[in-house]
Design brief:
8 strands, 4-stranded antiparallel sheet, 33% helix, Alpha-Beta Plaits, alpha+beta
């Protein structure tokens, strides 16, 4: 069983200005996250071997309030630290279209592992970068059937085309997923131009509704986020949150952390 001891930065770094985020990211060694680079890679490889055949029982969504082109993100260094976290299974890196925010969707072995990551490791990372952050935890037990029906690769969906973009959605409602009308919604989603797959997301404790939708192109992703999805939420009389991400710029980083979206 994986150690429950979190591996993170001590949290005493001087906060960085947003202009210095890139420099700060590049300057933070893996050792600053609580262990040496060699130990990090060894632990990461062990964790990945243990969990690469496991299904994620929980997801984590993260987003740093920073504007950093992904080619300036030291993802190799960060991947070693992320992969060493207890219960880690995979990560799909997310780079904000237009704003270059940095984040991702992670698979974890349990909700407990996800909460540890969101309450300990990631806040310490954001603190060292000197930026605010967003995190969400989702329990996959209730959404597995709905996600599998939308060809989600985390739930056995066969990837035939790699994504060009991702759309993250979250609706400000509290609906236990067993009461969500996903069987009615999925056929509608399948008519959306360019949609490749959808992972349904149900907020831990909050029961918010949303997902990560993979699209073939950025243009089709934008059309969904800007035109189609707002009509759905208007019918629900609910506020909502959408983000569009370029899936091509993060491909290598995501492959390195076992993202199931790439061939």
């Amino acid at each position: 069983m994986a150690s429950r001891v979190p591996r993170h930065a001590p949290g005493n770094a001087v906060p960085l200005s947003r202009r210095k985020v890139a420099t700060g990211m590049a300057a933070i060694p893996v050792a600053a996250l609580g262990f040496s680079a060699l130990a990090a890679r060894s632990t990461a490889q062990t964790n990945q071997k243990e969990h690469q055949t496991m299904r994620a029982n929980a997801f984590v969504y993260t987003e740093l309030q920073a504007s950093l082109p992904f080619n300036n993100v030291p993802w190799q260094k960060l991947n070693a630290a992320i992969a060493a976290q207890p219960g880690f299974i995979d990560k799909t890196w997310l780079s904000g279209l237009g704003n270059n925010s940095v984040g991702g969707l992670y698979g974890f072995a349990s909700v407990e592992d996800s909460l540890l990551y969101c309450t300990d490791f990631f806040p310490a990372l954001a603190r060292d970068f000197g930026v605010a952050q967003t995190t969400r935890v989702f329990d996959n037990q209730a959404t597995a059937e709905a996600s599998a029906a939308m060809d989600a690769p985390h739930f056995g969906g066969h990837v035939t085309s790699e994504p060009g973009a991702f759309v993250y959605t979250e609706v400000q409602v509290s609906v236990p997923f067993e009461k969500a009308p996903w069987r009615d919604r999925n056929p509608v989603l399948r008519t959306q131009k360019g949609l490749l797959s959808k992972v349904w997301l149900s907020g831990h404790n909050t029961h918010t509704l949303g997902g990560l939708d993979a699209f073939d192109t950025v243009e089709n992703a934008l059309d969904f986020a800007i035109n189609a999805f707002p009509k759905t939420t208007a019918a629900m009389n609910a506020a909502f949150y959408t983000r569009v991400f370029d899936a091509r710029v993060t491909e290598d980083a995501s492959r390195d952390l076992n993202s199931p979206y790439y061939l």
